[in-house]
Amino acid sequence: MQGITLALSKGRIFEETLPLLAAAGIVPTDDPESSRKLIIGTNRPDVRLVIVRASDTPTYVQYGAADLGIAGKDVLLEHGGAGLYQPIDLNIARCRLSVAVPKGFDYEQAVRRGARLQVATKYVHTAREHFAAKGVHVDLIKLYGSMELAPLVGLADAIVDLVSSGGTLRANNLVEVEHIMDISSRLVINQAALKVKHDLLKPILEAIEGAVKK
Amino acid sequence: MRRWLLPESIEDLLPAEARQVEHLRRGLLDEFALHGYELVAPPLVEYIESLLTGSGRDMDLRTFKLVDQLSGRTMGLRADITPQVARIDSHLLNRNGVVRLCYCGPVVHALPAGFNATREPIQLGAELYGHAGIEADLEMVQLLLRALEVAGVQPARIDFGHVGVFRALAARLQSPALRVEDGQQELFVALQSKDLPSLRQLLADEPAEVRDAFLALPGLYGTSDVLARARSLLPDLPEVRAALDALERIAAAVDPAVAGFDLADLRGYHYHSGVSFAAYCAGQAQAIALGGRYDEVGLAFGRARPATGFSLDLRQLAQLAPAVAPRAGILAPSSGDAALRARVSALRAEGEIVITALPGHDEDMQELACSRQLVFVEGEWQVKPLERKV
């Protein structure tokens, strides 16, 4: 592909990316929420968007199937970031990665006693690193969604998940007990594409970076 | 598990691809010979200590290990031929002047070097020892360009970097956390992935001059304007100036349309000591050839020698090079006739492919890819066009 392919997920990341793309003079011709197309054209014939699952974005960019991508820091940490440049923090889709437990569970005490915690999460790699750094033994249970349910039905003592407003936690009687890190979306670039397609990419990167700073 | 399945990322070379790989191997080694590079063939296994000399932890993880049942020592399957050739130069040849060596052979990776990468690349490369000046780096870059030309592969970008810039700046880091190896590793990872947000965090306590210089590095990539930008953005240190001068001279050897720079490209930072370079091809998610200067590697083998070189993976190159068509052969009947045998030998001596048709396989004759046949006409064996059976 001679032009530029940008991978991103629909929903919040897509919506919050639109103004940044507009700053670079790129306007998608379809809305992924209403269209079923997976490849979306733009007003520029040499730029197209591919709509992927959020956790697949780094993989598409790493393999060069997309030149650029927009991926949450959470997804990048799980992926490891090999083969990617991640120069710009877009400051969009902001939230935090936290540990949450059912109301009434004494997390501090459980951690101090050195108990083996059962932790349900989608972010197995990041959770393992976090608890290893604290010296806490955990059994990780990989789930793909609705993490909040796990402690309520006895599958786990705690969860590691993204929290933005905290509404879902409150609705399910969970409390946030530890803040692991702040999350926002990054622009990721295939390393070879940045070199080979430098002339095409540079103006786009500069426009996006300029828009983020504003 | 089906018994004939191969392990992950391990594959056979079937005739069409093997022909391509062998064609390239011969073409490139012959070309290297014309430039005075002598062929060496280091062993597939050797003691782990000498294999891992001067390399980073990645190489340790990438190396398959086994126990030598003769000595009880740990051996490794080579994951890179370069240190082996450095060992040959520093310890076995003991020449004091310039030594030019080339090699080609399979290496094995316990972990694939990249996504989609084979675990058994066929590494082909050339190394030049004994000259510290830029002329040696220039010779290597020119040899790489010539090799790609011989292979029929058009590079989209030859990218240059220089670890001297990073080293000069790293020597001026103040905070104790960044002066130890672990801290520098983090800095190195952030630079390598151009991760500016993390760099800002890591360098928060550094003096403004050092911090700004490091933060400028990830942006110092691109084409001809990079060196001028680097001279204005980086502190005017003698090491930095020397590195930028070297880059300027070496890039002049390459067509400006394909020359590029990336001052934050720290690949091989553990053993590289000067100019490094990489060739990229359109449509390839990874570099197709990597090279650079590594003056210190020989030290572990008893003799530090200036060294520079490059290597590439023939399997990857074979996918990019124009296809080599098989040569059509001549079909010879199976017969004890002495005149036929003499004619077949004569044709083979001329370089023709002559294939004997064994009895009972007439049905599968087209698999032999012959365009002509030997026919007994007017008292002698003559080469005639092959009549296709309908």
UniProtKB/TrEMBL annotation, chain A:
Query: What organism is recorded for this protein?
Result: Methyloversatilis universalis (strain ATCC BAA-1314 / DSM 25237 / JCM 13912 / CCUG 52030 / FAM5)
Outline the subunit composition. Heteromultimer composed of HisG and HisZ subunits.
Q: Which residues form the ATP phosphoribosyltransferase catalytic domain?
A: 53-210
What is one process in the GO biological process aspect for this record? L-histidine biosynthetic process
| Example of a GO cellular component annotation carried by this entry | cytoplasm
Cited PANTHER family: ATP PHOSPHORIBOSYLTRANSFERASE, ATP PHOSPHORIBOSYLTRANSFERASE ATP-PRTASE
Question: What protein name applies here?
Answer: ATP phosphoribosyltransferase
Encoding gene, per UniProt annotation = hisG
Catalysed reactions listed for this entry? 1-(5-phospho-beta-D-ribosyl)-ATP + diphosphate = 5-phospho-alpha-D-ribose 1-diphosphate + ATP
SUPFAM superfamilies xrefs: Periplasmic binding protein-like II
Automatic annotation (TrEMBL), chain B:
Q: Where is this chain primarily localised?
A: cytoplasm
Q: Which CDD domains match?
A: HisRS-like_core
Q: Which InterPro entries match?
A: aa-tRNA-synth_II/BPL/LPL, HisRS-like_core, HisRS/HisZ, HisZ
Q: Which GO terms describe its cellular component?
A: cytoplasm
Give me the residues that bind L-histidine, please. Answer: D80, I81, T82, Q123, E127, R267
Subcellular localization(s) per the UniProt record:
Cytoplasm
The source's superkingdom equals Bacteria
| Pathway per the UniProt entry | Amino-acid biosynthesis; L-histidine biosynthesis; L-histidine from 5-phospho-alpha-D-ribose 1-diphosphate: step 1/9
One Gene Ontology BP term is: histidyl-tRNA aminoacylation
Taking every annotated instance into account, which residue ranges of this chain make up the domain Class II Histidinyl-tRNA synthetase (HisRS)-like catalytic core?
Answer: 10-317
Molecular function, one GO term: glycosyltransferase activity
- One Pfam family assigned to this protein is tRNA-synt_His
- HAMAP family recorded for this chain? HisZ
Family, similarity comment: Belongs to the class-II aminoacyl-tRNA synthetase family. HisZ subfamily.
Its job? Required for the first step of histidine biosynthesis. May allow the feedback regulation of ATP phosphoribosyltransferase activity by histidine.
**Which NCBIfam families does this one have?**
hisZ_biosyn_reg, PRK12292.1-1, PRK12421.1
Its quaternary organisation is: Heteromultimer composed of HisG and HisZ subunits.
Name the record gives this protein: ATP phosphoribosyltransferase regulatory subunit
Q: Which organism is it from?
A: Methyloversatilis universalis (strain ATCC BAA-1314 / DSM 25237 / JCM 13912 / CCUG 52030 / FAM5)
**Gene name of the record:** hisZ
